[in-house]
């Protein structure tokens, strides 16, 4: 598949917002945007005869439009990407599967922010997602008191997981997201911990509840604590930092890759792969085609409109991959 941009023009409409129209040799791509004619003229000049035939061409597209406002660039990039059938194939036509879901099954304001479950050996995405949702449904019935301690909630999560284990032929693992550093302390509903106390508490939770995923347990600049945790558990689980500020990749073995546009995302993922880091992608629908193409193994999903749209997208791509194998 090769698509060549022939023209970028403005379709002015009397009663509605103007449309930007990208004319290609294959189709017309249009989206609503109040962009002025001077900008459209510049885009037309830069993109005329621009060829898109692989994922790398989105890197070149970003370079071509380096002066374009970031928000406008994302709108344009999404429009082009969405117009391509099975866009994941642009990044890897031989992709075998979609990322497996890390699902939030319970969240709260203080202490551990999120309790998550995921599977690394479920046969496919829909089966893994259904199991995670079943755990969340069971957990919702078990938690009657919102003020339960971290340990009590983890025990209930484990109970819900064990009940699901009786029905499936794959393993469901537990994890937590902390993000509870405030003004020099690690804050919980019933206590505040110093840095060393936080480390002891995290270690105790990992050992007692067999946690295999721990995200942002410490303030991101406190690499001494990250290294202590990493040195002890790097072979047993995922010590994850979710940040735009990666200072020392030897302090953790897992990162959450954030998606703004294809070019920057691909550069980040290639860097993480080069450093032998495990990669999780944040659950944004726009990121899924490139995430599948780049072979990212896990995706963070929330139980909301954004998470559900992302799950729907991954289900569709999963079906496309199965169809490709049969053809």
Describe the 3D structure.
- By secondary structure, the protein is of the alpha/beta class.
- It is 41% helix and 20% strand.
- The protein is built from ten helices and 15 strands.
- The chain has helices at 37-47, 56-64, 70-82, 125-142, 150-165, 195-209, 223-233, 262-274, 288-293, 305-326, and strands at 3-11, 19-24, 28-32, 51-52, 100-107, 114-118, 173-177, 181-182, 185-187, 192-193, 213-215, 238-241, 254-257, 278-282, 298-301.
- It has an eight-stranded mixed β-barrel with strand order 5-6-7-11-12-13-14-15, surrounded by five helices. Strands 3-2-1-4 form a four-stranded antiparallel beta sheet. Strands 8-9-10 form a three-stranded antiparallel beta sheet.
- β14, α9 and β15 (298-301) form a beta-alpha-beta unit.
- The longest helix is centred in the C-terminal third of the chain and has 22 residues, at 305-326.
- It starts with a strand and ends with a helix.
- The mean pLDDT is 93.
